[in-house]
Amino acid sequence: MKKSWLWLSALVLVLSMFLAACSGGEKTDSKKQGDNGEKTSEPKDGGTLVYSLDSAPEGKYNPNFYGTATDAEVIDFFDENLIDYDENLKAQPYIASWETDDNKVYKFKIKEGVKWHNGEELKIQDWEFSIKVLADKDYDGPRYVNVQDVVGVPEYKDGKADSISGIKIINDYEMEVTFDKARVNNLENFWTYAMSRKEFEGIAVKDMMASEKVRTKPVGLGPFKVSKIVPGESIEFERFDDYFGGKPHIEKVVMKVIDPSLTVGELQNNTLDMTGFHPSIIEQVEALDNINVVKYPGLSYYYVGFKLGNWDGKKNVMNEPKYQDKALRQAMYYAINRDEWVKAFFFGVGKPVNRPVPTNHWIAADNKELEQFEYDPEKAKKILDDAGWKDVDGDKFREDPNGKPFVVNFAHYATQNPTFEARAKALTQYWEEIGLKTKLTMTDAGLYYDMLEKSDKKMEVFFGGWSTGTDPDPSGLWKSDALWNYPRWVSEKSDQLLDDALDMEVVGTDSDKRKELYIEWQKHFMDELPALPIAELEEIVALNKRVKGVKYDVSGSNRPNEWWLEQ
């Protein structure tokens, strides 16, 4: 489905833990890949679509609370962003439209007659309610950043105000929102998901995430409504006839969790219609006569991060000494044969990346403007030697500059995908080849990112991945006050460059000026190396040939109400 705010958030840069790793990395034609590659007849109604996930959802089925890619896939079937994005990743009116003269004050208007699955009509107050949840003092999720720039939100969060002064309700379908300053991306960063006030009536914000309204009986605005959830196993949906975008053709959707080793067999046996999959099986999937493989441009990248500090509840504090030596981080980067690693584990649908911005984004710096950190183990060894990282006890592994034993404690998430541990071990071998003793810990994917958010001491060096957004501003990942800045990197220069790139007084509406600042930021990042960008990916999906009407571009797919099944 269209990668709505769940995937295309500008500032949040929504977390994709790549639990399915169902993507790759080379640029492709940005035209829509449509109709499952074939000429088709008129759409037909009826049938059940079977869709799979290769790891269990965390079970937070609400945009305000979810934190994993699998939960996002579930949510996208039954809920809606109020705005849309086109194939150029530009915001477009959808349920909501807007007007602004100065990028500071926006007037929003929602369509009349849009229905929640409980039969209630969507009102502008539902959107206001959602914003207030994120601004509440008891909200402990990661999306406060999407409302913090609205006038009055900090005061509301601190309990100094009973309402948000920057939100003015005009009537049931219109509201005015005032931001604290004009920014280029105020709209893209703003939270544009509503919550049904009726559904959450009487539930305190602190109790919402654990409530049945989030876990087992979620209600949305989307083309399908949830009919049954078996935690950890499956989610069933039924057609929502009153969907504002038009009655869906497909009658039911069954989303099930399957072992990745069974994917090819399920596709071959026609017991699975649609799934992302790991590149390691692409040749087997492409060989199936009943399946089409669709590739489309990705906005994702993998990286290795270093624990440089901790989260104090409001900001990052760079107070962990173990990996503060930049020479150590540089050496570990030069030690990785990224070309070899990507070819070994992404099977032609990935490529090395030299910056924390995917190539498909317009702000991406040209490679020639950046240090390439090409594989050079001898250079890595020399850097370590010069910085005092030497083997002083003759065991072939280096001690730190103070002569004390040193071990790289490396963490990677674990699913049922066997390639994950293999690729993690390959990275540890690169580091051991330059004399850095390394210990690998595979951590259950359901716990992994929660441990990172809580700055768990065990997460010293870690493997991560991000799917970025329509507006490529990296602030939500890398500013000093960003919760998802998992290395806990603090840099005044970084913060200033990112602030300037959004400041209307600095860049106005000149995208070239904005790009120049982002390029300077990428240079700074690659000089400091709080994380090591490893690979960027292309998205890949397997579709049974009976599935029709599915179209893809860089923004994702069209909405599933347009899909249909050849009976």
From TrEMBL:
Pfam family, one: SBP_bac_5
GO-annotated molecular function: peptide transmembrane transporter activity
Basic and acidic residues compositional bias, start-end: 26-45
Alphabetic keyword roster: Signal, Transport
Keyword Transport applies: yes
Solute-binding protein family domain ranges (all copies): 97-479
Cited SUPFAM superfamilies: Periplasmic binding protein-like II (SSF53850)
GO biological process, one term: peptide transport
GO terms for cellular component: ATP-binding cassette (ABC) transporter complex; periplasmic space
Keyword Transport: yes
Superkingdom classification of source: Bacteria
Similarity comment: family membership: Belongs to the bacterial solute-binding protein 5 family.
NCBIfam families named in the record: Opp4A (NF045467)
The protein, known as: Oligopeptide ABC transporter substrate-binding protein
